[in-house]
Amino acid sequence: MQRARPARTVEAVPQYRRFLSELLSFGFVGVIGTLIMILGANVMRAWLGGSPVTSVAIPTVISTLASYLLNRFWVFRHRDSDGSGREVAIFFVLNGVGLLIQVVCTGFTYYTLGLHGGVAYNASLLAGVAFGAAFRYWSYKKWVFTPAVA
Known about the structure:
This protein has 150 residues and is mainly alpha-helical. It contains 4 helices and no strands.
């Protein structure tokens, strides 16, 4: 008589595929947020005559609202949410850090390097977005959209 072996559970989706899907979805949301931020920043700077730092800050706040909704209800929908304001508060605090990263890149280019042209402005926006996005992805997974408790 053969001894019964414990059954192995099979994950519905392999871990690497979930990670890849999550990363690509996060990137897509990032592209949407970046478009909102860059278009808004250029409109504010060119047509409304805003300062370079204000022109980055206001569209980034708008983009953050859109990003939270897309991340919560699409990208990280499989992760826990306690339904409290904790998740939202931490999300916006971490986005504040991401915004600070973007503003530092823009301010450094404009005020420290003295590069005032459109190409330099948009290059500093993209650099800030890249550094900010890396920080946001890492911090969202660590502190905001935590894994579901089994």
